[in-house]
Automatic annotation (TrEMBL):
<comment type="similarity">
    <text>Belongs to the UPF0310 family.</text>
</comment>
<feature type="domain" description="EVE">
    <location>
        <begin position="3"/>
        <end position="134"/>
    </location>
</feature>
<protein>
    <recommendedName>
        <fullName>UPF0310 protein G6N74_27970</fullName>
    </recommendedName>
</protein>
<dbReference type="InterPro" id="IPR015947">
    <property type="entry name" value="PUA-like_sf"/>
</dbReference>
<dbReference type="InterPro" id="IPR002740">
    <property type="entry name" value="EVE_domain"/>
</dbReference>
<dbReference type="Pfam" id="PF01878">
    <property type="entry name" value="EVE"/>
</dbReference>
<dbReference type="InterPro" id="IPR022996">
    <property type="entry name" value="UPF0310"/>
</dbReference>
Length: 144
């Protein structure tokens, strides 16, 4: 049975990854990506629109399933060489987290619900992943 993950990045970074079929987390570190297996569910949460910006968004901005293959090093051409992992992103709308706070296992009853997002990547229950997918209007294919 696949695992489900929430990754954290600004919406502008997530949108770039969606367009090109990849994800990266924790400023390009390989270790967190190695925890993800083919078929695992990935949902991105974006606290802001721009990296380091004050333009608060607090929404889920992408959802999909990890492809097979290991994380790989990518040369951006400007001195930054992050690790990436390929993902099959689904057609989905961005969904604000606030209406889901009382229903998600990882946030319900937690006053400091945003604390886990500081880690850049964490696992969530199938219940939470399905709820996020529903809020985003995404149709989840069965994992391979």
């Amino acid at each position: 049975m696949p695992n489900n993950w929430i990754a954290i990045a600004s919406a502008e970074h997530v949108r770039r990854g969606r367009a090109d079929g990849f994800m990266q987390v924790c400023h390009g570190k390989a270790g967190p990506l190695r925890r993800i297996a083919a078929g695992d569910g990935i949902a991105y949460y974006s606290p802001s629109v721009t990296f380091g910006g004050n333009d608060k968004l607090q929404a889920f901005t992408a959802i999909g399933r990890a492809r097979s293959g290991d994380p790989y090093l990518f040369d951006t051409g400007c001195g930054f060489r992050p690790y990436r992992r390929d993902v099959d992103w689904l057609a989905a709308c961005e969904a604000p987290i606030r209406p889901l706070l009382d229903a998600l296992d990882f946030t319900a009853g937690h006053r400091n619900w945003g604390y886990q997002f500081r880690f850049g990547l964490f696992s969530v229950s199938a219940h939470d992943f399905d709820l996020i997918a529903e809020a985003m209007g995404a149709r989840l294919p069965e994992p391979a």
